[in-house]
TrEMBL record:
Belongs to the binding-protein-dependent transport system permease family. Residues 1-20 are annotated as: Disordered. It holds the Pfam family BPD_transp_1. This is ABC transporter permease. Residues 98-278 form the ABC transmembrane type-1 domain. The chain crosses the membrane at residues 45-66, 102-125, 132-153, 159-180, 223-245, 257-278. Keywords: Cell membrane, Membrane, Transmembrane, Transmembrane helix, Transport. The keyword Transport applies. Residues 1-13 have a biased composition (Low complexity). It is a multi-pass membrane protein. The keyword Membrane applies. It is found in: Cell membrane. Its main location: membrane.
Amino acid sequence: MTTAQTQQKTVAAPSSQEGRGVTFTPAAHESVVGARRRKYLHLTLRWATPVVLIALWQLAASQQWINTLYFPGPDQIFRTAISQFSDGTMTEAFVLTGWRTLLGFGVGAVIGFIAGVAIGAVPILRAAFEPVLYALWTIPKLALLPLLLLIFGLGSMPLIVLIILNTLFLVMIPTAAGIAGASPELLETARAFSASPWQLFRHVLLPSSLVEVFVSLKIASGAAILVAVATEFVIGGGGLGYIIWNSWQVFLPDRMYVGIVVVAVTGSAFTLLVGVIGRRMVPWAHGL
């Protein structure tokens, strides 16, 4: 047997998986290994990057490269956070901001999705309401706060309504675009098989818009926390925004940074959670 024949036989030799109908070539094995390495690399970078940044921040504070009166180090912020969570101050603010955000985001997301489906699926509605909706969207939401205070008075309701309005537009516009941009070929094929309106929505329109829907939900989740905190700056009444603003007023920068860090971690976790749900619901979307 020649050397070339030996090499050919070695490459074509069945793997241990052949009995189950699966054969792995060297190229396929290399591709799987490469994908696994990239996954581990991305996971490592996801956790290592914030750790490195925090370490550099701590180093700069300990070496007095920055003014710790205005920029306290992570160790000092951590000690203040433990104290504030122990006495319940930060816990109460976190819970208050959290339920306001979740309620406003949930209601706004549902209304925005339903409105987006209606506007995207019905051309007459899109022609009638699209200009008005874009005009309303360009209005800064905080500019509506005085009007909401007149209607609902002080308390949580103006803040929740503001989050609902912001979330509604952020979800509605991409959803409408996704529904309206459904493949005409798929729609014609479904109609050729006498699909009902519900079947058209379930099997054609909804799958074609899910990527846009979950991208908009990720953006809206972070924006909901932003609106909640910004509104608490103005109306007070507790919450993370009030803690941050009040700490600045009485010049307690370490307490202020605790509030900022809690907001950042909460927003990141909320957005990542929405992304995880999106990847479960839309496994073919790689950007969520």
